[in-house]
Amino acid sequence: MSRADDIFIQNCRDILENGVSDADMNVRPHWAGDETSPCGTPAHTIKKFGVVNRYNVGEEFPLMTLRRVYYRSAIDEILWIYQKKSNNVRDLTTHIWDAWADENGSIGKAYGYQMSIKHKFPEGEMDQVDKVLYDLKHDPASRRILLNMYNHADLNEMALAPCAYSFTLNVSGGKLNGILNQRSQDMLAANNWNVCQYSALLIMFAKSSGLEPGELVHVIADAHIYDRHVDIVKRLIEKEPLPAPTMKVEDIADFYKFTRYSFTAENYRYHEFDEVIPVAI
Q1: Model confidence over 218-241: pLDDT tens digits?
Q2: Which residue from 132, 265, 148, 134 is spatially nearest to 202, judged by alpha carbons?
Q3: pTM of the model
């Protein structure tokens, strides 16, 4: 059965059974509004602090089977950030960022914008992505290989502060491992989406550097289930996980040549799930 499903079920059960409600707090997220409640209704959660999950990406690509995950759309978003280095939703094939974009399609100085900024290094002027690629090839023993999007100087010009904000890479025994730090995680809507994204990013960095993918460690500061998601999550985690698919990835040595179609999940079986997931904004 899928390891990703097992971890998701364990996390959600722990949050539901042992989590803390923020119903007594003034929260930023709100519901867009529908026939049952007005626009601006606070979106409260049940949450756990400091959730840490480990995935062995080299052995099994962590793709959920409890419901279908559109992994190519998830990979498209990660390429939008780290390959295209874009902050404009018109460069995306999905509409997941439309609610935060201005009339020109920009989400401000967030995500891909931060990856596009060039910095001066001893090796020359490079952006963060190119510095990571350089170090993986020329200095794999370094303990300073990381990407960071949480630029405090630009926060007031971001439509949304980065949720998944840093990715630390480490080479051990010829394998590339990564730690994803995330300040906030909507478990139902985004947990496996983010895990798939950064597993794919780990694989792309590994293939671009002549390394094998190893572990992805996912550190979540605030792992939460929204109030309107509770019943949906309860039904979802009662499903029986199916066998994990095999992820086939094209052998590409140039990070900038990968596309979302470079990844193909073979024998991907999943449970049908037609419930509409309300999204807090």
Answers
A1: 999 999 999 999 999 999 999 999
A2: 132
A3: 0.96
